[in-house]
Amino acid sequence: MKIDLSQFRQTFLQESADHVAQMEANMLELRSNSDDVELLNSIFRSAHSIKGGAGAFGLNTLVRFTHSLENLLDKLRSMEMKATEEVIGVLLLSVDVLHSMVQSDVDQEMSKDASELMVMIESLLTTGSTVGEDGSKTSGSGSENKIIGENKTPANATSVYSVSFVPDREMFSSGSNPIVMLRNLADLGTVLSCKKNIDELPLLTDLDTSKCYLSWTVEIETDRPVEELREVFEFVDHLAEIKIERLKAAPAPSLGPTLVVGANPVVGENTPAPAKPIALVPETGNAKKPQTTSTPSSKKAAASDSGSIRVPIDKVDRLIDLVGELVIAHVMTAQMVEDFQPSLLPKLRESVAAMERNTRELHERVMSVRMLPVGTIFHRYTRTVYDIAIMTGKQIRLEMAGEETEIDKSMLEMLGDPLTHLIRNSADHGIEGPETRTAAGKPAEGVIKLRAFHRSGKVVLEITDDGAGIDPARVRAKAVERGLISPDAQLTDQQIQMLIFEPGFSTRDTISDLSGRGVGMDVVKRNIQQLSGTVSVSSTKGKGSTVTIELPLTLAILEGLLVRVGNRTLVLPLLSVIETVPLRDNQIVRVAAQGEVVQIREESIPLLRLRRYLGLALEGTDSSELGGHFEDDALGNRRLAVIVEANNKKIGLVVDELLGQQQVVVKSLEQHLHKVDGLMGATILGDGCVAPIVDVTTITELNLFSLQPTVKLPLAVVPADQSAAIA
Amino acid sequence: MKKILIVDDSNSMRQMVSFTLRQGGFDVIEAEHGQDALNKLAAATVDMIITDLNMPVMDGITLIQNVRKIPAMKLKPILMLTTEGLATKKEEGRAAGATGWIVKPFDPEKLLQTVAKVLP
After folding, report:
1. pTM higher than 0.80, yes or no?
2. Which of A172, A235, A237, A278 to probe by mutation at the B interface, max B CB count within 10 Å?
3. What share of chain A in percent tops pLDDT 70?
4. B64: which of A26, A112, A528, A707 lies 20 to 30 Å off by Cα?
């Protein structure tokens, strides 16, 4: 039977990638608990699993490498060797090699890195050190890979053997069954005789059925080598006395025993051997492997699978339940509509309401399928910090909290790079060297804290370090030098700190190898903004910094506030909305050449006239839109300002009417139009109209250092005839 | 149909073994580690067990020892699924009550052959 296992290849690769990540995390933990046996066992198990599966898919290089690594791990877990920094260094490098091997998913030649590492491992095993070895020593795994083509007895000459099989009394206790063995033996050739020896059998009263009293002598004629006969009893060689004697070579196919010399093609005529010759596989043997497994097509499959997601079964079960309920509710509703009478109306309402509840819950559950714990990316940073600490000679500890906080998968993927950058920044620029720290009265070891939690419907990620902090004076000087602000600009410390997110800003004169090439924080900020999130920093010189990233739970759906501006409906993300206030002319302060602000409870909030900002056509004459007063409009409705906030900045958006709130599905504009600043996308409303969704973050940004609402916006808001195309 | 319990913490390995056994005409139940296997055995009887050795929570050797204490499982074959061709592991397994072993790398044909070798 040919069994094709290629369908499990993806599972294996994904699982191996998980193992690699787990190994790395455990190895890093090993640094502080170098004799934690459970940790070592866990690492060993991971390596072991990878090796076990890799063989099945013909990934022989991976098998060889993990085997070598396993040897080292085995020494460590048996405490024959200590997990010193040097050893852990080698382990971590090995994980990198494993990572790339698992990623590449084809059986390749051992890379240079990998071979060197294997030599290092070998030398660790023999001398306990990676140094002092000239490197000429070949790795020990060579023998592993060698398949010994041992010369077996020629397979096509038949012989008659006498097999004496005397099981131990206790044979049954091992789960072994002598009858099965005899049957297997019989399958190897023609049984000429089978003698059962019952001499040992006691009287029935003394019989213990859990003991084996019988023994057999079998004469068998076979073309198989004697090793194969012996192999039948492989598992019981400690529980039985087995003697195999060759009685005579090759009787003729007919009854009369005639000698056959040499190879005899006649055999097989009436030898009831199994149709397929069983190849003897040496125990180390990776000789025969399913050849089909490493084809380019499976490589392609790997690429397309990168978009997959693993969902806990209970989430799926709940979805199925809900769909079931929905189907039932639908059937009931349909039935009622079919036999409709006015008296049924309350019932109909009820069942429509039930459907709505189901739909809403279904929606929520479906969204949660996409949610993954942030811990899945957090753990890689332990390594990042470790590498930087080693390279810079600093002592840094990374603490993590809230790893279980869930966030949309696509966002999680896009968060990886910005977080890496922020953490590198903290480790490289933030945390000081041990001497500096001690001199400043801080512990020599710096701490970076990575925290995730929910706050008012958002996911918050915080990266805090207890390093040198940001020096506002230096930032300011640099910003002036770079022309980002004018020398006499009035800015709070908070505003100055935010300058580090401006494009082209970098306080380091010498560019470090690790982080920052002048394209640092502004890229971080842009990435976060693409996720509809915000990023801010607060820092105290000498005490450390905290970078806070706020993200919506998911990108695909948001709770929106529908507003009317002119004759268009716009959507404002409800999360950003703080309040809505009616505008009276006497609340407005016009700042010369800088625009308008509204006074609300002692606070001045800049106003933005959305209609003008978005370049909406002016339907009907409306003096207010010409920079005039905020009078009630023709119908006596009062104009409103919706106060929104992003990045700790508030702005009032002038709208004509509030229409209500609803959940909207965000559709990208970019497939249809160019990127429109100030809009994050559009949605389709219940009546089929397309409504643009305002991107509060960029709108508040535009007003950071200049309060002019008449910023030149290349805003081509969707003309009515094109809007239908957005779907 | 003969029923086999496969115990392995590696998802892919478990799936491969299950798949192969099902192809070979066996009924299969799966467990992720020794304790899981014991729980499953409390609810179902099987004709045979194939178990990995290195597993979290409860390793294969401990599982075998415990299985042999279950009256219904006293005489049933148990195979160890292991990458370790090491004699010491085999001895340890045998002492615990294992019937035999299957050496990884996993080879489906070899698995079915070995099962046939011990399963009545």
Report:
1. no
2. A235
3. 76
4. A26
Above 50 in pLDDT, residue A313?
Answer: yes
CB A163 within 8 A of CB A221: no
The 10s digit of each residue's pLDDT in A343-400 is 888 888 888 888 888 888 888 788 778 788 888 888 788 888 888 888 888 899 899 8
Q: Which residue of A lies nearest to B17 if distances are taken between CA atoms?
A: A5
Q: What's the longest Cα–Cα distance across chain A? A: 124
pLDDT of residue A567: 81
Whats the size of chain A, residue-wise?
727
What is the rounded distance in angstroms from the CA atom of residue B13 to the CA atom of residue B30?
Answer: 11
SS3 for A254-290, per residue?
CCCCCCCCCCCCCCCCCCCCCCCCCCCCCCCCCCCCC
What is the 3-state secondary structure of chain B?
CCEEEEECCCHHHHHHHHHHHHHCCCEEEEECCHHHHHHHHHHCCCCEEEEECCCCCCCHHHHHHHHCCCHHHCCCCEEEEECCCCHHHHHHHHHHCCCEEEECCCCHHHHHHHHHHHCC
- Whether ipTM > 0.90 holds is no
**A668 contacts A693 by C-beta, under 8 angstroms:** no
From the CB of residue A373, how many other CB atoms can be counted at a distance below 10 Å?
Answer: 15
Tokens 């080879």 found at = B107
Q: Which two tokens stand for residue A538?
A: 């607060």
Least Cα distance to A429 among A460, A394, A462 occurs for A394
Radius of gyration of chain A (CA): 38
Residue-wise pLDDT tens digits, B54-106: 888 898 889 999 888 888 888 889 998 877 666 677 788 888 888 888 887 77
Query: CA dist B35 to A263, A550, A602, B96, Å?
Result: 54, 42, 66, 16
Instruction: Look up residue A327 and give its two tokens.
Output: 């189907």
8 Å CB contact of B10 and A281: no
Size of interface A-B (CB pairs under 8 A): 120
Closest to A378 measured CA to CA, from A303, A309, A453: A453
Contact A284 B85 (CB under 8 A): yes
